Amino acid sequence: MATADLRKGYLLGLAAYCIWGMFPLYFKLLTAFDPMLIVSQRAIWSALFGALALLLWKHAGWLRELLAHPRRLGVLALSGLLIASNWLIYVWAVNNNHMVEASLGYYINPLVNVLLGLVLLRERLRPLQWVAVALAAAGVAQQLFALGQLPWVSLVLALTFGVYGLLRKQAPVAALPGLVVETWLLLPIAIGWLLFAGGGAGANTAALLQPQALWLVLAGPITLVPLLCFNAAARHLPYSTLGFLQYIAPTLILLLAVAVFGEPFPADKATAFVFIWVGLAVYSYDAWRVLRSAGVKPLTPGAEA
């Protein structure tokens, strides 16, 4: 692969994960709005801007293939509900000062994916994968022992995104067309909520007339831009490399939570994070080792030089 392509892939991958990691800065601008209103608007504007993006960046044959396999529409409807649930919990967490828990959820996510593969796909785990999952479980158990309750925000975020990924594997549609179909299938729910729930149509109309409502319109491009960057990066980098880059986003969320928004990060929470981080280190080493033995050399920063 050409050096220029690798460099482009790294830059696009970094852009995608950095934008996802900086999302809290955007959602903090919307604290005046109900999380359900934010998610409804995000679905609507993502559907509209996504359709426009599909006109500009055509994916030949995706609609014909999707209509030829109608079961995939049902899968995308379910995955759309899952990603909307993930959005809702994430927005609530950010705007109610639970960003530390949100970051923990996205750290756990790769290990939850391994566990879902074991339970739902009957995949066999390698010894180091068992160690990584056990460390993640120890981190969750430590939170249960220290706080007297499960870190439900973290677990729901990790599980909804993990199951979402499994469902998308059952409906092999490219990322952008898939997101567009998901959001279009969500439109009846989003519009119905805006018209009949959350205080009724009048209350929601009044909310949308506020000056801050302009930020809601930007939910569409803000959702799509990192996805487009990720798609482009995936064409220039081995997927394993993107897997390592994914830790950028929860790290940025954690740094914003503690350093910018002043969320507490006491020793009991830090202990749970240490378990998760060690588990991720074991998981990453195991993935690198397996790829290397298979003759696939994962890229590391600077490797293209």
Pattern of helices and strands: HHHHHHHHHHHHHH
Report how far the terminal alpha carbons are from each other.
12 Å
- Low-confidence stretches are 297-305
What structural class do helix, strand and pairing data support? Answer: mainly alpha
Radius of gyration over all CA atoms, rounded: 20 Å
Q: Estimate the strand proportion.
A: under 5%
Major sheet description = none
Shape: globular
Number of helices: 14
Counting structural domains, the number is 1
Can you walk me through this structure?
The protein is an all-alpha fold. The protein has one domain (3-293). Helices cover 79% and strands 0% of the residues. It contains 14 helices and no strands. The protein has helices spanning 3-27, 35-56, 62-68, 71-95, 99-120, 127-147, 152-170, 175-196, 200-208, 214-217, 219-236, 239-245, 248-260, 267-293. Helix 8 (175-196) packs across helix 9. The longest helix has 27 residues, at 267-293. The radius of gyration is 20 Å and the shape is globular. Mean pLDDT is 85; it is low at 297-305.
Fold blueprint:
Layout: H1 3-27, H2 35-56, H3 62-68, H4 71-95, H5 99-120, H6 127-147, H7 152-170, H8 175-196, H9 200-208, H10 214-217, H11 219-236, H12 239-245, H13 248-260, H14 267-293
Keywords for this structure?
305 residues; disordered C terminus; mainly alpha
Quick description:
The chain is built from 14 helices and no strands. It has 305 residues and is mostly helical. The protein has one domain (3-293).
